[in-house]
Amino acid sequence: MPRKRYLLTPGPTPVPPEVLAALGEPVLHHRSPDFKAVFAETRARLRQVFRTENEVLVFSASGTGAFESAVVNLLSPGEKVLAVSHGNFGTRWQKMAAAFGCDVVELTYAWGEAPRPDDVRRALAASGALVALLVHSETSTGVVSDVERLVAACDDAGAISVVDAISSLGAVPLETDAWGVDVVVTGSQKALMTPPGLAFASVSERAWAKVEQATLPRFYWDWTRARANQERNETPFTPATSTIVALNTALEQILAEGLPAVFARHVALGRACRAGARAMGLELYSPDDDSAAVLTGILTPEGIDAVELRLALRDRHGVTIAGGHGDVVDRLFRIGHIGYVDVFDITTALGAIELQLAEMGASVERGAAVAAALEAYASTVAV
Ligand SMILES: *Cc1c(COP(=O)(O)O)cnc(C)c1O
């Protein structure tokens, strides 16, 4: 038998078989009626999943590309922009805005912290920045920030909010219109259960007004041209048509399950994963509460190398999880539970981790993690 593979990283994520099958359909021409019909449906479903009436622009790119589109459409050279970081991705957006010659006002927290709305309010007032770059789920740490209150702070200051929701949209609640989020960016390969290759940006009316004043150069990422094309169910350039067909199927599945049920499943998976880690006597790196519904970050026991553990899981057991970074690279590993994941994916990962930890000399009670995970999951689902 070929090696069976289990993909449990916070992106890319596993994809339902129906979505994979849709990828195998004959390639559609992007100016054909067949494609336009699919794209019309996809646009409508994206608005439902984004919880917005605004157009959701579709780019053939990774999530970083769509975030770059926000920077070049909203900002001008030398313009002040508040860029909030509480981990790897927030720091990426600080560097990106600097690379485009913006005057970056950095608000930086230690990894593992959550940004505070009052700090955002103060930083905007002190700097006069009219745009704020925020991260919803900081995938490097597992911290999910309180976007509703952070965006309210932006509103108070009259600033446009740009939210990196790349690992959160479709996993945890994000009420784009109700919370007044101006720009929401995500990618296809995380909670949207689709292979990598597409990225999205929803844009509010207030943000469109800012676009008209912003002067950074833009061409491929030009939102105005993208919107005009999308209103005809087209894109300016050749999109990843097969991936859009696949995405349309994935969005249909998400909406059929229902967003509240999807979010409840993610909470339950987080609980299962944390209960399993605790039962093995492991320390959590991500928050030990239901906010950590996107991924679980776990530290290895003292003396056990996380990189070695991760590679052994991949090469010996076919289980791919994510590693750590910086100061905790030797200790941290991360299990993603976003998208097409159920509790048996979690028990598979926990079972393999238990086996491998024992082999590397850790004292772990056999079977405890799986039992605890199933119990936590069942009690959550029963509620
Ligand atoms: C995955 C991720 C990104 C990067 O997305 P790419 O699609 O790799 O460009 C950015 N931000 C967050 C929070 C992510 O989880």
UniProtKB/TrEMBL annotation:
The keyword Signal does not apply. Residues 6-325 form the Aminotransferase class V domain. This is Serine-pyruvate aminotransferase/archaeal aspartate aminotransferase. Keywords: Aminotransferase, Pyridoxal phosphate, Pyruvate, Transferase. Its cofactor is pyridoxal 5'-phosphate. It holds the Pfam family Aminotran_5. PANTHER family: ALANINE--GLYOXYLATE AMINOTRANSFERASE, AMINOTRANSFERASE CLASS V. InterPro entries: Aminotrans_V_dom, Aminotrans_V_PyrdxlP_BS, PyrdxlP-dep_Trfase, PyrdxlP-dep_Trfase_major, PyrdxlP-dep_Trfase_small, SP_NH2Trfase/AEP_transaminase.
